[in-house]
Amino acid sequence: MRDLSKPDHLPNLREGGQPPEPSWLPRQRRGITPQMIGRYPDYDVFDTAETWDPATARVIAERMEVRGSFAFFTPDEQPTLRALCDVAVAQDAEPRIPVPELIDEKLAAGRLDGYQYADMPDDRETWRLTLAGLDEVTAERHDGYRFAGLDSRSQEAVVENFSKAQLRSASFDRLNITRTWSVCMRMILAAFYSHPWAWNEIGFGGPAYPRGFMRLGPTSTREPFERPGATDEDPVRTVTEGRA
Amino acid sequence: MIRHLLKGAVGPKDNDSRYLLDVHRRDLPGEATMRAYPDNEEVDLCVVGAGAGGSVLAQRLARRGWKVVILEAGPFWHPDEDWVSDEAGSHQLYWTEKRIIGGNDPVELGKNNSGRGVGGSMVHYAGYCPRFHPSDLQTDTLDGVGADWPISYQQLRPHYERVEAELPVAGQNWPWGYPHTYPFSPHPVSEAASVLWRGAIAQGITMRVGPVGIVNGTFGNRPHCIYRGYCLQGCKVNAKASPYVTHLPDALAHSVEIRANCMAARVELDPSSRRATGVTFIKEGEQIERLQRAKVVAVAGYSIETPRLLLNSATKGFPNGLCNNEDQVGRYVMVQGATQAAGRFPTELRMYKAPPAQVSSEDFYETNPSRGFARGFSIQTVSPEPIGWAEHVLADGHWGRALREYMRDYNHWTTIGVLNELLAEPDNRVTLAEEKDPFGLPVARFDYSLCDNDKANVAFSTEVITDILHAAGAQDVLTIQRFAHLIGGARMGTSPENSVVDAHQRSWAVPNLYLADGSVCPTQGSANPALTIMALSSLLAEHLGSRPATERSRL
Q1: Does B392 touch chain A (CB under 8 A)?
Q2: Which residues of B touch A207 (CB under 8 A)?
Q3: How far apart are CA B514 and CA B536, in angstroms?
């Protein structure tokens, strides 16, 4: 049993810089979260959906419907994209937030961020070169394999090199790889953390208009509909200890 | 003195925007009945850009009877339908047309610092409204860096006071720079910000609540803030100040026309008199060029688009861009260092509640020779929403499982940031790129590189905020190095050789062409620029408006 007031689950404070296995987290009981893991097992941001203004509710509803079809990435690119997105935010099981589909929708609509590095191509070209590059690197390291065909440990090793700008290949050499990591990761993260399932995982209060937030602290920082964080406790043992 | 005692009970004069707003709808009142000038009518003033600078100028001069048309590249917002309580859904608020960024330290644009649409970037700013310090206007004399402004703080001061009453600005009495008070009382402070404040106190650093342009009392039909925390996504409440609620309602009531979705292509010049005759623009969907004729032209497109418009307006006599025969247009563009450090605490803080802008310090604003660099920085609380928090965690080097772990810990974190005064350098510059926008106009390229003084400032300030977090008892710290804000690019000065405009923001080269935005600032201080941009426009309006109507065609 872990005490949430202590920070010893945080990667920077642990040897190797990696977090504990998610088994310390409680089983999700209420809202959906990616991989059904999270810190707020009894929280569902949709419980307050009727308090959202119509414009916001519509945008969130449209986001929830994005899945399954691709307009920008080719069928050949999709497995590599999916594998990269899974590794980048550790989505190793269902339910998954449809990160590849959300990125595809954004790129197909041309919703770019408003800047392009002078030593980089357009973001859309950067994505195509990145996916090609991941397959080129994989083919060289693991004879004949494509990135999506690797086991997750090998995929993570490639992405670890990507994050440290240590990949070379014909496609990657046409990019500034440090910036490429930033372009791809920021789009992946914007997709993942725009999704209400991710808000359930992290206990974020979600849209708040016209309701607003009242409990700013110090008496409490939790609205009545928000739930406290929890860990994987055995309720029987907790009760027994309480009695003792 | 009376104002000091009565706080917000004394409203601004000569601006009825707060009463014109509708209590039940967020739309800008007056759109349906807005004046529509024909293109071929020579209006008194054509403004390019409906942001902080352009809106104040238009509102002030319309009140003096000027016929004004504002051309705005972006949409005419209807906040009830267009704005959402959601990070990713607010993409449309930013200038997302392509721009090229280069130099040793390229500055990310888009949502970081660039707005589009009626109301400009203030629609999505955090709300901090500090003044510049008097020293900011004399950095060359005092510290041997940057440049002196051709105007004094005392010229600007009455306009600071006037704009502070119009926004209105809420905060504690301000002890730094030129000490002053604010028309509205300080907002309540969230526990997430209080934790940081206690850390600062432990370090002997003074912090004060505010100054933010957010309503917290009776102010016409502007409602009280509801502390939902989505200031950066456009205030659906109408509590946060932007020209959309502070100046444009009054402007429309005085016959200003805002022509939205109209991209200015170039400023037109009469070849013989070298006077501006109007602005050529393209309305989205029309693909034909139209010319709005005007006696006076004011460009208020901010530090990227103002230089771009001048450079795209090259003509006979100005082969390298309008007003650019001395090679000054687009130079000395500045951004502020905006490192943010987040700390982890034992209890849930839920930093997404309340505006990100709460408590700030200007203890380190002025030069202190013992620090080893010129000028300084300010300290401000901030509070990223989930996507912003993910970018913060990524910047500290985490991805995959480690990133997910930090993200799940979101509610235990709180964030403090700095604004470093980075120095004006001639080669930090906006030029034209080879790429073109959908209208066929060359897009801007912005090159930016830090100098040694900048790097020393950023490094020192990062230590200061990290120490605050540790003093507050942070269990872990994550840091992101970034930039914020834009200013400069067509600065004011004492001669055409060192500037683009004179002390009255009039271009040296074209007598009836003015720049009315942050691009004219020769230095930036460590203050968020919005209030100063509005105050400068207010000063310009006073100068232009004091001339009799018959003189307009000779201005």
Answers
A1: no
A2: 84-86
A3: 12
